Task: inverse folding
């Protein structure tokens, strides 16, 4: 199949967007003449992140189903129909040779429209527990790219390609940057450092646990790199200012994640698919706090896949304020355990995921 125009749909979170951008970048590197169009959800972060990466994007009026307040779903059928109508118009105008769905709100309507129009499509599933939309669309997909073994319980086995999650190229090249990272964050390259990442919107339970433990970090001489998310940034900065001698870097969002991982001796994080993949690629020990209300509880499944491989420690969200930082610091002080976690973590990393996906699609 000769491919010239590729449509990539999905988004909603960084866990969907960054793999999509990584795939597009690998395809572009393999064949610079390819033309791309991203399709996301209006008002979601992909509408900012994708253009920043140099790709064109169109938004659909689609929204997710609100599982906590069912009455808020009254307009969902109307928005779905409007999104499907716009999806068909996009296919008519762009005429893609291939569609790639990475999950998220926009992925469903676009791949449904591609199926109806007979346009070949593939799916990239980041999580160890497949989403409903991807399961429904999998039967007609040409390939299903997955990051975890055992995904035949969700998808046709013959279509599975276990390549891992595509991540930003700079993260693969994070090793050997500790001194550069220390200069960037204003920290000491020789001191132990905890990296806290709660996803693009931050994680309240993790943030509160770190805020509560700032004095303890100061007492044991451990530095802090803290990605707070926008809602908690001001509160975090005020809390850190009250501990003037604590070596720290606090920001709502860290774009230089290669440097953040290079600086980290242990990572505290949610267990989103992308975060887990990045931690493994960087070969870092981690304490994971799965988001309890994630769809199908997929974050717990992601975290347990690392625990089973002796590559991470899990703390429940409800216990974070009491034991999260204590667990991280005890692990940091236990050099043998830290080494075991790092080695197992690195063994799970798949640095060539984007290139392997691109090669499969262009063969």
Result:
């Amino acid at each position: 199949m000769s491919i010239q125009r590729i449509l990539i749909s999905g988004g909603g979170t960084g866990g969907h967007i960054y793999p999509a951008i990584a795939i597009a970048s690998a395809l572009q590197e393999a064949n610079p003449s390819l033309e791309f169009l991203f399709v996301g959800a209006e008002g979601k972060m992909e509408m900012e992140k994708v253009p920043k990466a140099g790709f064109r994007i169109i938004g659909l009026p689609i929204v997710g189903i609100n599982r906590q307040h069912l009455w808020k779903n009254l307009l969902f059928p109307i928005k779905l129909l409007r999104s499907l109508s716009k999806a068909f118009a996009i296919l008519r105008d762009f005429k893609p040779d291939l569609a790639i769905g990475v999950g998220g709100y926009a992925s469903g309507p676009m791949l449904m429209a591609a199926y109806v129009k007979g346009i070949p499509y593939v799916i990239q599933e980041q999580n160890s527990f497949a989403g409903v939309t991807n399961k429904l669309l999998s039967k007609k997909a040409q390939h299903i790219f997955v990051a975890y073994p055992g995904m035949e319980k969700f998808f046709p086995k013959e279509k599975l390609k276990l390549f891992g999650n595509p991540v930003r190229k700079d993260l693969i090249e994070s090793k050997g940057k500790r001194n550069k990272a220390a200069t960037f964050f204003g920290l000491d390259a020789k001191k132990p450092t905890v990296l806290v990442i709660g996803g693009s919107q931050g994680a309240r339970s993790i943030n509160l646990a770190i805020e509560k433990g700032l004095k303890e970090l100061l007492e044991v001489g451990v530095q802090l790199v803290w990605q707070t998310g926008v809602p908690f940034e001001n509160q975090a900065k005020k809390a850190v200012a009250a501990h003037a001698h604590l070596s720290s870097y606090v920001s709502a969002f860290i774009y230089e994640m290669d440097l953040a991982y290079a600086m980290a001796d242990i990572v505290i994080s949610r267990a989103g698919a992308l975060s887990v993949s990045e931690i493994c690629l960087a070969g870092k020990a981690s304490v994971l706090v799965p988001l309890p209300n994630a769809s199908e509880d997929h974050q717990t499944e992601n975290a347990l896949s690392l625990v089973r491989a002796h590559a991470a420690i899990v703390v429940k969200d409800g216990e974070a304020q009491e034991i999260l930082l204590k667990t991280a610091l005890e692990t940091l002080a236990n050099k043998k355990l830290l080494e075991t976690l790092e080695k197992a973590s690195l063994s799970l990393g798949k640095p060539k995921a984007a290139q392997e996906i691109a090669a499969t699609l262009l063969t």
